[in-house]
Amino acid sequence: MQARNGIQLYSASDICNFLECQHLTALDLQNLVVPMEKSVESDQNRLIQEKGLAHEAAFFERLSRPE
């Protein structure tokens, strides 16, 4: 999602994201007006990210198994 010359431009990913989660689109729109502060890189944040990705992979694996 971008804003150029006062016009909001949407990508295919933005449309897919909207269909999955309207709140994500609201946050993206808000970020265009007032950019959100990025999280500081830290060992704790990396660990949280790694655990989240591992959780998603395990969940996906569970959904992919035939019953």
First-last Cα distance: 40 Å
| Count of DSSP strands | 2
Uncertain regions: pLDDT < 50 for 5+ in a row? none
| Number of individual domains | 1
Computed structural class: mainly alpha
- Tell me the strand percentage band: 5-15%
Biggest sheet overview: 2 strands, antiparallel
Fraction of residues in H or I helices: 55-70%
What overall form do the CA principal axes indicate? flat
Describe this structure in words.
This protein is mainly α and 67 residues long. Helix content is 64%, strand content 9%. It has 3 helices and 2 strands, in the order ββααα. Helix 1 crosses helix 2.
Overview in brief:
The chain has 67 residues and is mainly alpha-helical. The chain has helices at 12-20, 22-33, 43-64; strands at residues 2-4, 7-9.
Itemize the secondary structure elements and their pairings.
Blueprint: E1 2-4, E2 7-9, H1 12-20, H2 22-33, H3 43-64
Antiparallel strand pairs: 1-2
Helix pairs in contact: 1-2
Keywords for this structure?
67 residues; mainly alpha; two-stranded antiparallel ribbon; 2 strands
